[in-house]
Amino acid sequence: MNKKISVLIPDGENDLALKVLRCLSIVPNIQVSVLSREKWNPIRLSRHHSGFYSHTVDQFDRKRLDVILDLAKQLGVDIILPVEQSAIRLISEYREEVEAIAALPPIASPDVMDTASDKWLLTDILKKENIPYPQSILFQSELPDEHDFTQIPYPVLTKPLNGAGGTGILFFDNSSELSAYLKSKDCPEKLVIQSFIRGYDLGCSVLCKNGEIKAYTIQKGVIPGVKRFEPPSSIEFIQQEQVYKNIEKLMRALNWSGVANIDLRYDEDKKEVKILEINPRYWASVIGSLVAGINFPYLACQLSMGLDFPRPEYQLVRYTKPEAAFKLLLKEYFKGNISIGAIKNTGILYTMTDLGPEFIKYYGRFLERFSRIS
């Protein structure tokens, strides 16, 4: 982009917004304004935005849209760039009205987003397209006697239909454990039960337009998250032809537009990759994608302005999240190894050069712990 472009992130209260903002901050001709439902969200103190604005509308509904459009008109922004699923869906629902005010990146239609993000509806697409996925059944609490939970191989995982980030996933060794949980009050009304796959986690991040993959990265978990089923703390970017072919087939079937992060798992018994779920939004490791050479938010802005580009290649590097990277660096320091050359492949540099948000984060955590003690 040769001229200055103004971008509005309308959902600055989401943790992903700060990561997207930091990706855009390295592009000279882009200035970013942020709109947030939280007046003192950490992103407010980031040095990378050109303006921070807040509001008090809780729901992603017509009122929220009016707040977004009013600010977009006031600022005269060129692009509105939502980053989280609820905001992306809201913008998609009122696409024509929004595009009369500012350009939008590629965005899937609301019904396609709903299908992709629902783990059970997604299995129908995968089955029709003959794309491998874990053996799954849908549990509905109002029909408990119609289920035969001995027909699925154990161990199994139970997952919320629309959960993300590993939240709500539970592990069961056998049918008796599962049945006891399904009869308990803690069990949600609907969930997907999937066979646990012996193997390792993979991920694929994409930016698509009308089913065509414009940019992508494939990553493998190296260091697991703090909690089980959380996203990994460290990832390694890899090339895996089977992953790409399956994702390409799925994106075409959905006629997908926009960004998405797809969770997969390599089945060591069957020697094949299986798709687990789609997250129709930006992802926690979007800075990692940047380190690997793919600036997804910037490429989305280019597409929103009608600019095309050859599909970029990414580097096969390892990326570690800032929190995990700090711990690893401390371990190396106390071992006497102070020559850490791989710091550029972590999120530390993006954190250390933008400390304002970190101050609010840790101050908030301090107040929370202090209130518990007192």
Tell me about this structure.
This protein is an alpha+beta fold and 374 residues long. The chain has four domains: 100 residues, NAD(P)-binding Rossmann-like Domain (Rossmann fold, 3-Layer(aba) Sandwich), CATH 3.40.50; 61 residues, ATP-grasp fold, A domain (Dna Ligase, domain 1), CATH 3.30.1490; 122 residues, D-amino Acid Aminotransferase, Chain A, domain 1 (2-Layer Sandwich); 50 residues, no CATH class. The protein contains 13 helices and 14 strands. The longest helix is centred in the C-terminal third of the chain and has 19 residues. The radius of gyration is 21 Å and the shape is globular.
Quick rundown:
The protein has 13 helices and 14 strands. With 374 residues, it is α+β, with helices and mostly antiparallel strands. The radius of gyration is 21 Å and the shape is globular.
Topology:
Layout: E1 5-9, H1 15-24, E2 30-36, E3 51-54, H2 62-75, E4 79-80, H3 85-93, H4 95-99, H5 110-117, H6 119-128, E5 136-140, E6 156-159, E7 170-172, H7 175-182, E8 190-195, E9 199-209, E10 212-223, E11 234-238, H8 241-254, E12 258-267, E13 272-279, H9 286-291, H10 296-304, E14 318-320, H11 322-334, H12 348-352, H13 355-373
Parallel strand pairs: 1-2, 1-4, 2-3
Antiparallel strand pairs: 5-8, 6-7, 6-8, 9-10, 9-12, 10-11, 11-14, 12-13
